[in-house]
Amino acid sequence: MTAAGDGRAGPRAAPEDSVALDQRAAAALLAVDPVGLGGAVLRGGPGPERDAWLAQLRRNLPAATPWRRMPAAVPDSRLLGGLDLTATLAAGRPVAERGLLAEADGGLLLLAMAERAAPGMAARIAAVMDAQEVALERDGLARRLPARFGLVALDEGVEEERVAEALRDRLAFHISPGRPGDDDPPTSRDAIAAARARLAAVRVPAEMTEALAGAALALGIASLRAPMLAQRAAIAAAALSGRREVSAEDAALAARLVLAPRATRVPEAEPPPAEEPPPPEQGETQDAPKGAEEQAPLADRILDAARAVLPEGLLAGLGAGLREAARHASPDGRAGARHATPLRGRPAGVRQGELRSGARLALVETLRAAAPWQKLRRTQRTGGPRVLVKREDIRLRRFEAPQETTAIFVVDASGSAAMHRLAEAKGAVELLLADCYVRRDKVALIGFRGAGAEVLLPPTASLVRAKRSLAGLPGGGGTPLAAGLDAARGMVEACRRAGRTPLIVLLTDGRANVARDGTGGRAGAEADALEAARPLRLAAVPALLVDTAPRPQAFAKGLAAAMGARYLPLPAADAARLSQAVRETAA
Question: With contact defined as beta carbons under 8 Å apart, do 95 and 141 qualify?
Fold first, then answer.
């Protein structure tokens, strides 16, 4: 059984039964306040554990509570609502249809395969959750419908696939369900109803709010929503326990369920007291010591509760999260951003346009656009077809596909690099070129040595040409690092103009000694290299700097920071590690 979190690791110190109790508590709290808590992310594929948690949640909900399922890909007309085409054509006037978000008002919405939901759809759901209503202004309709619901995002992603941050940030609980105990009794619906009735009357002491905010800060949580959701969870816990004021126990539960799964660092434990208090003098009496929980400050107790369920792989998983935030994400895991295509790719809605050769007509959407105007058009024209469609009604299907990725290898062929490991670097790059070929990426090769840089191979999908250019790369001369970066930036701009996504892999020992103007001198060459690196960071180009020196160089690490690149020191030749690093940067 795993702890509440993203499913990557088990709990650090919490026993299995306490984790099961917390997950059962999360199902009860969400039933008490689905709108205030936003909902939950359930990490993990279909199975008895997830089904049991969902069944428990549904048993907790009052009878007749809306419970709607929706796929990861759904048109806006079904998501937000719009024109009921059949009813409109039959009635001769616009008839509105409620969307899934409005149908879930007062209940819960289950988003299947949430990790595959398009960013646009995730943003629209998040906007409706914030406004708590659907503003429908389309197809000749203008109306507002209430949409107060909780969202349960079923996250079935593997490795680094995740639910969109716009949704994750708004959902209080991030859970990897474990198998509940056989003797776990469900929370009665009467208790849930009573808790809902007293929810608005629960008071939160100021010190509780400060303690939750302090715990979020200590855990490295940047979002302001996290402590607010934790406070809502504490309020729901107090209401469910019949209390009119949030207690330390309620706040600790909220910290475990809401804050711990969002942690980005392990808080430092307070050092033990330096010395024990002196014993009482003879004849004096000593008060019985209070329990450890009563002695500890409230903020420390809440933080300890969150610390107890931090996942063991927290620190190891942070790198993957940072890479995911920095990359141009795409559903197939590659670095290419998505762009519109006329005929192929993933469906991405419809657009108004002219029906020309090659365009794909969206028939239902076209009829929906024409339907509100039928009564007016029939008064202007007698006879003819039953449905009058004009040019402005035409709707065409839109598609999007990932852009092609171009991996630009910038190789240091200077004398110092050749002396160190140029031959080994060539071998590693050859493996990377083959890997790019398998992914159908294009590759380009830039070498720099002597007084400047040279494009040895423009972007190509030919593995044979790439290997031939790499084999002919000579070594020797100075290290014009700035010239190599300038050449890489020029190729980046050319790739983007051609609609491709660039990726830079820079292999160097970091010992720049030739400036942009061709003059020697380490200080000037390093300053020029840093100046050439900064535009790459501003352009948000995914990049990897591989330090090929026998010992990691401080300047190489600073250069990687200046260009916004991952830094990978390779004091020993390791082509497999290098290939994996490039694959992660591209992903």
Answer: no
Give ranges for CATH 3.40.50.300 in the chain: 16-180+187-262
Q: What is residue 398's three-state secondary structure?
A: strand
Query: Both tokens of residue 66?
Result: 């809306």
User: What span, in angstroms and rounded, lies between the C-alpha atoms of 397 and 363?
Assistant: 9
Distance CA 32, CA 259 (A): 19
Strand partners, 341: 399
Indicate the residue type of 66. P
Q: Is 174 within 8 Å of 43 (Cβ atoms)?
A: yes
Distance CA 543, CA 532 (A): 14
Residue 116 DSSP class: G
CATH fit for domain 405-586, picks 3.40.1000.10, 3.40.50.720, 3.40.50.410, 2.60.40.1180: 3.40.50.410
Q: Print burial letters for 18-28: b (CB count within 10 Å at least 16), e (below 16).
A: ebbbbbbbbbb
Residue position matching structure tokens 């959701």: 229
* Distance in angstroms (rounded) separating the CA atoms of residues 389 and 374: 9
435 to 39, 161, 275, 320, 528: CA distances (angstroms): 41, 21, 60, 21, 32
Q: What's the maximum distance between 2 C-alpha atoms anywhere in the chain?
A: 113
CA–CA gap between residue 348 and residue 340 (Å, rounded): 8
Say which residue the tokens 């992914």 belong to: 439
Structure tokens at 272: 């033990």
The residues facing 545 across adjacent strands are 506, 567
Start-end of CATH 3.40.50.410 domains in the chain: 405-586
Domain 16-180+187-262 in CATH 3.40.50.300? The answer is yes
The residue written with tokens 């920095």 in the block is 326
Residuewise pLDDT in 10s, the chain (587 residues): 333 444 333 334 344 567 778 888 999 999 999 999 999 999 888 888 899 999 999 999 998 899 999 988 888 878 888 777 777 777 767 777 788 999 999 999 999 999 888 888 899 999 999 999 988 776 667 778 899 999 999 998 765 578 889 999 999 999 988 765 555 566 788 999 999 999 999 999 999 999 999 999 888 888 899 999 999 999 999 999 999 999 999 999 999 999 988 887 777 655 555 555 555 555 554 554 444 444 457 777 777 777 676 655 454 444 343 334 334 333 333 444 455 555 555 666 677 877 776 677 777 788 878 887 777 777 777 666 777 888 888 888 777 655 677 888 888 887 755 555 556 556 666 666 666 666 667 788 888 888 888 888 888 777 777 777 777 666 678 889 999 999 999 999 998 888 788 888 888 888 888 898 888 888 999 999 999 999 999 988 888 888 877 777 789 889 999 999 888 887 554 555 555 665 566 55
Residues sharing a CB contact under 8 Å with residue 519, sequence separation 6 or more, in sequence order: none
Please answer whether residues 266 and 315 qualify as being in contact, where contact means their C-beta atoms are separated by less than 8 angstroms. yes
Residue 527: closest CA among 541, 537, 513:
513
